């Protein structure tokens, strides 16, 4: 068999495998959306859930998911940005940085349930935060830091070294070169990674079962006292998220229309994650286009 024929066969096999994977993924997404989209309505998205009754919504769980995502990103993004800048621009090549990079790789490979159990032992019990938004956000920070740190580091390293040399040649300090030249140039890649990691956090369940809790208390949107457990902005209240709600519905079986609520909530979760992914790519491309044309 000649080389050209072997190459065509190998290429055909790769295309076939890729096509099968795409078809399986598309069929799975289509199945979830076809089952769930008919149950989505404005009342379903805004009304609170109901136990032992028909007609519950996902309003509180959806708000909890978005609020927990916001708190997690407020905590994790500055840390990962600083770590990424250090590893890319300042870290020498020695055993210390090797340990740091190895630790990042280990953290990124940890199952989310392990992160959840660690968060339960440390934040819920040891720090006595209880089942709360802050416990869930801190656990998700551990889950999210490796991904964000590597994204920031790779985005900064993708900036050509001549731009750093140009900044230094103009008399800028190393820090000014990083903050005024390198980081703005790497911004599209950093923002893309932030949005993609947001989608990952939004759909997380295992780590939150043990940290943020499995109940969704009624929220008083007229109460903005952060110390009150009924306040929507309190970080010390329990917060059942959308992904945890789906798991809870299918394990407890206390809802007469649980199958419909689960299908609708799953469709909302899938649509949100798809929006995160497609939005990240669209925003990244637009920012890159603006910066290259400037």
From TrEMBL:
Protein name per Swiss-Prot or TrEMBL: Phosphate transport system permease protein PstA
Record's GO cellular component terms: plasma membrane
Gene Ontology molecular function: phosphate transmembrane transporter activity
InterPro entries referenced in this protein's UniProt entry, alphabetically: MetI-like (IPR000515), MetI-like_sf (IPR035906), Phosphate_PstA (IPR005672)
Superkingdom to which the source organism belongs: Bacteria
GO biological process, one term: phosphate ion transmembrane transport
Organism of provenance: Enterococcus phoeniculicola ATCC BAA-412
PANTHER family cross-referenced by the UniProt entry: ABC TRANSPORTER PERMEASE PROTEIN YQGI-RELATED, PHOSPHATE TRANSPORT SYSTEM PERMEASE PROTEIN PSTA-RELATED
């Amino acid at each position: 068999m000649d080389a050209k024929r072997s190459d065509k066969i190998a290429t055909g096999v790769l295309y076939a495998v890729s096509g099968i994977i795409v078809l399986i993924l598309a069929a799975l997404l289509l199945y979830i959306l076809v089952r769930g989209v008919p149950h989505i309505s404005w009342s379903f998205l805004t009304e609170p859930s109901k136990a032992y009754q028909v007609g519950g919504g996902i309003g509180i769980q959806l708000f909890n998911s978005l609020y927990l995502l916001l708190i997690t990103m407020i905590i994790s993004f500055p840390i990962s940005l600083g770590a990424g800048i250090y590893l890319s621009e300042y870290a020498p090549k020695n055993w210390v940085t090797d340990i740091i990079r190895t630790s990042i790789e280990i953290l990124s490979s940890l199952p989310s349930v392990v992160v959840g159990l660690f968060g339960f032992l440390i934040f819920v019990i040891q720090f006595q935060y209880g089942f709360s938004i802050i416990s869930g956000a801190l656990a998700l920070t551990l889950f999210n830091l490796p991904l964000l740190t590597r994204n920031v580091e790779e985005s900064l390293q993708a900036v050509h070294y001549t731009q750093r040399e140009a900044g230094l040649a103009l008399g800028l300090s190393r820090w000014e070169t990083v903050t005024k030249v390198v980081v703005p140039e790497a911004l599209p890649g950093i923002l893309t990674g932030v949005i993609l990691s947001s989608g990952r956090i939004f759909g997380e369940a295992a780590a939150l079962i043990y940290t943020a809790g499995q109940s969704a208390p009624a929220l008083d949107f007229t109460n903005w006292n952060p110390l009150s457990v009924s306040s929507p902005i309190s970080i010390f209240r329990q917060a059942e998220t959308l992904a945890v709600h789906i798991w809870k519905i299918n394990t407890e079986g206390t809802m007469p229309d649980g199958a419909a609520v689960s299908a609708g909530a799953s469709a909302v979760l899938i649509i949100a994650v798809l929006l995160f992914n497609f939005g990240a790519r669209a925003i990244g491309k637009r920012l890159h286009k603006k910066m290259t044309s400037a």
